[in-house]
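Case study 2.
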Amino acid sequence: MSYFLPIIAVLLSFVAVIVVKPKNKEHFKLLLAFSGAFLLALTLSELFPQVYENGNPKTIGLFVMLGILLQIFLEFFSKGAEHGHVHLDKGKSNFPWLLFLSLSIHSFLEGFPVEHDGHILYGILVHKVPIAIILSIFLLDSKIPLSKAAFFIILFSLMTPLGSYIAANFESATTYYTEINALVIGVFLHISTIILFESSEGHKFNLRKLIVIVLGITIAYLL
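Prediction:
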């Protein structure tokens, strides 16, 4: 199921956008806020204890920082699609390769901790659904042909299971599993905190977003 659920979540999100045809991604900000809080809470409660228990603290800290830097680098190409920002030139029909490669690297890394921690799968799924919906909206609103958009989404959906498969079956991935997980933690920390900071909308108090953030933290704690 850890291989199939990420694929199903992304593909169903794409199909839902085709059927429902939502036009305003602003409606998904609450879901994004929930996903950011949920993913951050799971990262702190599930992944952090594992890596520090199995690795040298200084090395782990270094790889966490490298994960943060890696995600910052990837966002130069994805323009923040990992946390709900997609900027495509609607006048072009070319396949957005840079966006695809940056999102693929991000999704590929997400698959590694899933192999040994089933709970983090829920965080990744909750994170993927709003991102897949927003991404699908932009792809379908652009001049990219439907076949290319579907090709993008299908390949994107396969990246996380590919990461899980490599983590389970490649000796080198097993040898450096703790360091890779620390790298992934850095990626998760950057994305989840950016989502939470952006959800504040100019630092104005928003009761609905506060409620969904607290709900995300609570559910992650109870898992």
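The mean pLDDT is 85.
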